[in-house]
What does this fold into?
Amino acid sequence: MNFWSETKEIFRNTGVHFRTGVSYMLPILLIGGMVGSLAVLGGTNVADDSIWKVFKDIGAIGLTFFVPIMAAYTAYSISETPGIAPGFIIGILAQQIDTGYLGALVGGILVGYVTYMLLKVELPSILQSTWGFLAPVLSTLVVVLFMVYLLGPPIAALMVFLSQILSNLGEQGSAIMGAVMGFLGGVDYGGPFSKTQSTFATAVMDLELYVPLGICGAIVTVPPLGMCLATFLKPSLYTKTERNYAKSSWIYAIVGGFTEIVIPLAAGDLLRVTIATVAGSTTAGLIAGIFLLELSTPVLGIAQWFFYNKPLVFVLAVVVGSVVTALTANLLKQFSNRDIAAIEAADAENE
Amino acid sequence: MKIALVTSCLAGVAHSKMAAVALTKEAQKRGHSIAVEEQGGHKIPTKLTAEQIDEAEVVIIAKMVTISGKNRFEGKPILDVSVNKAVRDPSLIMDQAEQLIQLS
It folds into this structure.
């Protein structure tokens, strides 16, 4: 029996399973957040029979159901279609027993794993098809009991603790959180560190905390915009290919805040570019944190500036962060002995 | 040789695209033909056709999130790698794919 090797394989890929859950969860959060933001146009006290109330309710649906969806597709990532229903149920349970997104992620992994393992059990063919129907029921039951009696209480306590800390951070605490998130968001261009901070920012929306997402929104625009600015200020420090990438990177900063676009620029000069983007996004995170910048819709990018509670702070954080990135990058590159002409020649050969 | 490639990332906008471009470029450089499917939360993937899958001698999966429809490739040699690795080092991935074909 390859029980252990399968178990190891599933838990070794925990990150992939989490990210799959997040990938399916983001669209619903996006719909909920955007439609919910429309309701703000109707003022703070919307009448029960107005269209704004409808928008507000739709927004609430999105902001409630993203947790079960995340659990369902975390489980799906492990055990495919049979995992969806158990995952969904565990996700709703996780909300009801106050364990929030953390409980949903843990529960999603567990129920996906148990479903997978149960379905791998080999039975006489006459029982096998019935087993296919029963296994998800059984796995749901097992994990439900496990969550309610064993894992639930400590996770719920942890969530209360976390929510208290995060909602009482104040300006200083938020500034520190902003700086840490800025560091993570600027250091690996959409890699595990960046995803950690953006997942954290979207997940705590479940606790009705919107400062982390505000910080996240500010910092992700900085690396692409900053590097674009850097190549404009001093083109001679960059190869032709790098300038071409930078030329399109401001579009990414405006529509989506994808730091991935910086990878080609960083690849040729990893240390210096990384220092520059980290410096810029940490600064932006710090500014966003100090002024308690909030965002309640997971739309990242400058085009969505009006969704922020303080649009001017957002602009300030982005501009200052980008300038810091650009100046740091060019200053560091001044003192490097990178042979631009030689790299360009090699690039041309590869074409 | 003929390759089928599936890439996936969170949104399906940045990483999956970059991995697809990097590996396609590398494949063309070596004279292989390659059919690509990109997956992600904000796009409808351009599905590989049954014929493309049938013809492929090796399937490369460059993923950040679990791909949908992996069972389509049952019985084929599959190279399962992270999307980041594919972006960073496409020639290594292509080497591994070539080796996989020789083994099978």
